[in-house]
Design a protein that fits this description.
Structural class: mainly beta
Shape: rod-shaped
Number of domains: 2
Largest sheet: 6 strands, antiparallel, barrel
Helix content: under 10%
Oligomer: single chain
Strand content: 15-25%
Distance between the termini: 129 Å
Strand order of the largest sheet: 4-5-6-7-8-9
C-alpha cells in the first residue's frame, strides 16, 4: 500500500491509498505515521512528498511533508585568469641638454687702489684723486661711491 496523499483531519492522520480509493473510505494510519514528520525514521521521511504551498498560499498542500533538498551550487566552469600586466618601463632618455655656461658675475668689485697720502679730511689715491673723509676709515670718492680704507688700500664698493 503506497500513500499518495496525506491529510491531517481532526485528531488523527488519514491517508488515501490505492486500497482505500477502491472502497471509498480513507485508511487510517495513526500508528504508522506520526503527526510530526521529524520523528519518522530516515527511510520513511525520505519517502514523504516535498512540502509545497496550497493554491491559496496560506497552508501546506500536503501534510506531513519533508523539507526540500538543499540546492547544490553549479560547478564553476574553467576560465583562463586574466592578469593585467604592468606597462613596460619607458626607455631612459639618452640625449641630455648640454650644461649652461657659467653666468657672468652681476657686479664686479673693483680692485683696491693704493692710498698715497691721508689727512684728517680724507685721502689721495695713486691717480691723485681726493677721497673725502666720512668718519673712521670710510671715504667718499668723487663719483659718490663709498670707499673703505684698509691700511694703505682704498676699496670702493
Amino acid at each position: 500500500m503506497i500513500p499518495c496523499c496525506v491529510w491531517l483531519l481532526g485528531a488523527g492522520l488519514w491517508t488515501h491509498s490505492a486500497a482505500a480509493a477502491q472502497t471509498g473510505k480513507p485508511a487510517r494510519h495513526d500508528a504508522a505515521v506520526p503527526a510530526d514528520a521529524s520523528q519518522l525514521p530516515l527511510d520513511q521521511y525520505a519517502r514523504l512528498p516535498v512540502c509545497t504551498l496550497s493554491a491559496d498560499g496560506l497552508h501546506l498542500a500536503v501534510e506531513p511533508c519533508r523539507t526540500a533538498p538543499t540546492r547544490q551550487p553549479k560547478a564553476r566552469r574553467a576560465v583562463t585568469a586574466i592578469i593585467p600586466t604592468m606597462p613596460a618601463r619607458p626607455v631612459p632618455r639618452t640625449a641630455v641638454a648640454p650644461p649652461l655656461p657659467p653666468s657672468p658675475p652681476l657686479h664686479q668689485t673693483p680692485r683696491p687702489t693704493p692710498a698715497t697720502t691721508c689727512d684728517a679730511g680724507g685721502c689721495y689715491d695713486a691717480a691723485g684723486v681726493r677721497h673725502a673723509g666720512a668718519g673712521g676709515n670710510a671715504t667718499i670718492a668723487p663719483s659718490g661711491q663709498l670707499c673703505l680704507r684698509d691700511g694703505v688700500w682704498l676699496q670702493c664698493q
